[in-house]
């Protein structure tokens, strides 16, 4: 919970100059229901992804490693949703203490960074596999993928530490309640804390959304151009190419739709925080919209398994095998999640090389 326009009370509590902005009964009812839905669907979907990849598809491809780590990241975040659901259902009352307040807030940002970083890494891997299948072969190895995952986990951990340090339990005097929110500045640390909160907000907007989104869009635009070029050269290319294009489009669309609303209102909230907007109406609009944008952002943890795994035929086959408790062995090996893209990469490079050869032969004549 972002607390703004606060003043210290005589008894050590905090008074809100605009009251409990954004506190409405329909929020306290609807948001916990959405959180519960996200929790159930997310836990089931991501657990299936982990089980299927670990049991049947193995960690022998770069794509499988990234998708598995993405699912683990989502599971790590989803375990905090019951606490946030309780927080919303009780009218922003935090009964879990200061340690869990810091931990839950840190895990939210940890999931934000790990999810987007893994999506970006997966997008770069798809770009290299499709557009530069031969030259990128020595870089697209399991060892490099695991090193990348370690770097992502460490980077996300470092970026989420300031979030945890600036969150704590606060006692609100009017109305009397206990919330989990941003630290309230004192006369001694107001400038330092404001600078820290500004840096955290900028990192969340830039590293947590804008820069990865630009990289993802760039990768998929280059992929789309390469696929269209191949399709123009090979008139026989059929629905498999279209399915790959649809999958890529769904990835970008899901990423944008889930995170863009929250990032927009987060930016507006950052402006009101540092431009010192005292208009309670503006703060009311932002604080009322924020819980719903957060719900949409959290839904990304449910969408990821669908976009990256459930659309694949081989995943569905392996999922049915898992549900039937089929043994691992005596089954023909299944391609990885990225098998269609890899096959398309080969056809693309083959078609492009044939075009180059034809042009060279024409010049020789």
Automatic annotation (TrEMBL):
It comes from the Eukaryota. Receptor for angiotensin II, a vasoconstricting peptide, which acts as a key regulator of blood pressure and sodium retention by the kidney. The activated receptor in turn couples to G-alpha proteins G(q) (GNAQ, GNA11, GNA14 or GNA15) and thus activates phospholipase C and increases the cytosolic Ca(2+) concentrations, which in turn triggers cellular responses such as stimulation of protein kinase C. Receptor for angiotensin II, a vasoconstricting peptide, which acts as a key regulator of blood pressure and sodium retention by the kidney. The activated receptor in turn couples to G-alpha proteins G(q) and thus activates phospholipase C and increases the cytosolic Ca(2+) concentrations, which in turn triggers cellular responses such as stimulation of protein kinase C. Residues 45-308 form the G-protein coupled receptors family 1 profile domain. It is found in: Cell membrane. It comes from Fundulus heteroclitus. Keywords: Cell membrane, Disulfide bond, G-protein coupled receptor, Glycoprotein, Membrane, Receptor, Transducer, Transmembrane, Transmembrane helix. One of its GO terms (cellular component) is external side of plasma membrane. GO terms for biological process: calcium-mediated signaling; immune response; neutrophil chemotaxis; positive regulation of cytosolic calcium ion concentration; regulation of vasoconstriction. The keyword Glycoprotein applies. Its main location: membrane. It is a multi-pass membrane protein. This is Type-1 angiotensin II receptor. GO terms for molecular function: angiotensin type I receptor activity; angiotensin type II receptor activity; C-C chemokine binding; C-C chemokine receptor activity. Belongs to the G-protein coupled receptor 1 family. The chain crosses the membrane at residues 26-54, 66-84, 104-122, 143-165, 196-223, 244-268, 288-311.
């Amino acid at each position: 919970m972002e607390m703004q326009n606060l003043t210290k009370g005589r008894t050590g509590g905090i008074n809100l100059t605009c009251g409990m902005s954004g506190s409405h009964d329909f929020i306290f009812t609807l948001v916990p229901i959405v959180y519960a839905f996200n929790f159930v669907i997310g836990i089931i979907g991501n657990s299936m992804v982990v089980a299927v990849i670990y049991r049947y598809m193995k960690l022998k491809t770069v794509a499988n490693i990234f998708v598995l780590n993405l699912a683990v990241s989502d599971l790590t975040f989803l375990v905090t949703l019951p606490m946030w659901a309780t927080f919303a259902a009780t009218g922003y009352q935090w009964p879990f203490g200061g340690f869990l307040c810091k931990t839950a807030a840190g895990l939210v940002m940890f999931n934000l960074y790990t999810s987007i970083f893994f999506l970006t890494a997966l997008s770069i891997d798809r770009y290299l596999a499709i557009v530069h299948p031969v030259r990128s072969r020595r870089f697209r190895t399991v060892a490099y993928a695991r090193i990348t995952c370690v770097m992502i986990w460490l980077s996300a951990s470092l970026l989420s530490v300031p979030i945890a340090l600036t969150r704590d339990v606060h006692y609100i005097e009017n109305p009397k309640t206990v919330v989990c929110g941003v630290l309230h500045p004192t006369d001694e640390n107001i400038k330092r804390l404001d600078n820290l909160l500004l840096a955290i907000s900028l990192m969340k907007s830039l590293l947590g959304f804008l820069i990865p989104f630009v990289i993802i869009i760039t990768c998929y635009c280059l992929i789309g151009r390469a696929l269209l070029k191949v399709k123009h050269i090979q008139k026989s290319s059929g629905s498999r190419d279209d399915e790959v294009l649809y999958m890529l489009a769904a990835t970008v669309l899901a990423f944008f739709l889930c995170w863009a609303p929250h990032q927009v209102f987060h930016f507006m909230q950052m402006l009101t925080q540092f431009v010192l907007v005292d208009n309670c109406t503006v703060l009311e609009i932002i604080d009322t919209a924020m819980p719903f944008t957060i719900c949409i952002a959290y839904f990304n943890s449910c969408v990821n398994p669908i976009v990256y795994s459930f659309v694949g035929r081989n995943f569905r086959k392996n999922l049915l095998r898992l549900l039937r408790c089929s043994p691992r062995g005596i089954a023909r090996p299944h391609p990885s999640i990225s098998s269609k893209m890899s096959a398309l990469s080969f056809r693309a490079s083959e078609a492009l090389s044939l075009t180059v050869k034809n042009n060279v032969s024409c010049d020789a004549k």
